[in-house]
Amino acid sequence: MEFTKEQFFIVTGASSGLGEATALELIKQGASVVAIARREDKLKELKSKCANPDNLYIEVKDLSQDIDSLPDYVKTLREKYGKFRGMAYCAGINFIGSIRSINYQDTLDLFNIDYFAPLFMAKGILDRRNNIGKGFSLVCISSSDGINPVKGQSIYTGAKSALILTMKSISKEVSSYGARVNCVSPSMIKTPMTVGENCVLEDDNKEKYPFGWGEAQDVSNMICYLLSDKAKYISGQNYIIDSGGEV
After folding, report:
1. Is the CB of residue 238 less than 8 Å from the CB of residue 168?
2. How far is CA 209 from the centre of its chain?
3. Domain containing residue 218: CATH number
4. What is the pTM of this model?
5. How many domains does the chain divide into?
6. Which of 2, 22, 52, 200 shows the greatest Cβ crowding within 10 Å of its Cβ?
């Protein structure tokens, strides 16, 4: 196994999609996971899917609320579980609409969960009192839309591109004590969020997605690699996972 039960990781957005897949894979590889999401019922379902349920710890939290206090929230988690080996920020929402249809509240709601929450969770977890120091790894989920924007996603693209560059800058700040920060940017992945949207069918996107839509496991594999010591020489990067067709 890559990890041990003494190594604790935070996974946000852990109740479904990429967060769920990442939490399950980390536990499968032997780690302990503090799973954060808004819905307790979904987190309990996640526990029932774990290879080792005793290694999953549930925390019900809406990260889009009281964002300024998130560093203090991370401190309470450290006091409860000990210093963290890593964090995967997988929580996120999307917004599809033309420039004519957007409004300030839609923009604020999306940026709160897709940009400000990961930024302030990063502030908390990168406080040296809350992580193990050398060997710590933070991975944030961005999107290939943050590199190659498409129409109708101006707000989403803005948040995701900002996240990529912000984390790259932060990686330079924390490298002095051996912490690593990276982003992973998937294209179309089959998750409850994407399948529920009015997206173009997979069969009509052979050129854009030559291998078809990806599975959550395709992304969680990369996240877990970046969280591991196998990636100890990698920081400040953004890995695009798009089957070679989109970007």
Report:
1. yes
2. 22
3. 3.40.50.720
4. 0.91
5. 1
6. 22
